[in-house]
UniProtKB/TrEMBL annotation:
Record keywords, A-Z: Chaperone
Domain of life per record: Bacteria
Natural source organism: Roseobacter denitrificans (strain ATCC 33942 / OCh 114)
Protein's name in the database: Chaperone, TorD family, putative
UniProt xrefs under Pfam families: Nitrate_red_del
Protein's UniProt keywords contain Chloroplast: no
PANTHER family: CHAPERONE PROTEIN YCDY (PTHR34227), DIMETHYL SULFOXIDE REDUCTASE CHAPERONE-RELATED (PTHR34227:SF1)
The organism's taxonomic lineage, starting at the top: Bacteria, Pseudomonadati, Pseudomonadota, Alphaproteobacteria, Rhodobacterales
Length: 202
């Protein structure tokens, strides 16, 4: 996704939300290298369900090597022909790639003035791309700050219907070790976001 340079005041809690969206997007876009694994190993959580999931991810990252994480990523998302999981909204919602959910997402992205970066060739409805987009919307990385109602609409339309299902599948996938812990963090985070948006008026 492309961003425009502009300083926008962001509430610290929203900054944390955006950071977690962006972090999950980074972990799901490509295999975690040595630096990202080291950063992940240094994370700490609290005694909430999300905090415990983050602690679990940190423990697994500490024991993981870049080569094994790359093999796991390839088995999960690339494979011979296709990986164990297809991390796209269209597939989860219709059983096929490049379907109506992708067309609707492109419409909504255009209305929010979000465009796909020139060097990105994956469909915009991949889980990594949607995590990154949501993170960018929260902090106004695409030019203007997006209201909580707009965030809620985007979440409800493009993440709410399938992201928790995807993260649950990622947790349970037979190829998942490191990414099972990523799935646990994603599942808990989506649960928190869903509940927070449910309590938001509008």
């Amino acid at each position: 996704m492309t961003a425009s340079a502009q300083t926008i005041e962001v509430d610290p809690e929203d900054r944390l939300r955006a950071d977690l969206y962006n972090y999950l997007g980074l972990l799901l876009a490509r295999p975690a290298g040595e630096m990202l694994l080291e950063q992940t190993a240094g994370l700490s959580g609290d005694d909430s369900l999300l905090g415990e999931a983050i602690e679990g991810l940190a423990r697994v990252a500490k024991a993981s090597k870049p080569k094994s994480v790359e093999r796991e990523f390839n088995a999960l998302f690339i494979g011979l022909g296709r990986g164990e999981l297809l991390p796209y909204a269209s597939y989860y919602l219709t059983g096929f790639l490049n379907e109506k959910p992708l067309a609707k997402l492109r419409q909504d992205m255009a209305s929010l003035q979000v465009t796909r970066a020139d060097n990105v060739f994956e469909p915009e409805d991949s889980i990594a791309s949607l995590m990154e987009t949501m993170g960018g919307l929260i902090v106004g990385r695409f030019g203007t700050k997006v209201s909580l109602d707009q965030q809620k609409t985007f979440y409800n339309n493009h993440l709410g219907p399938w992201a928790t299902h995807f993260f649950t599948d990622l947790e349970a996938a037979k190829s998942s070790v490191f990414y099972a812990s990523v799935g646990a963090v994603g599942r808990e985070f989506m649960s928190i976001e869903r509940e927070a948006f449910r309590m938001t008026a509008g």
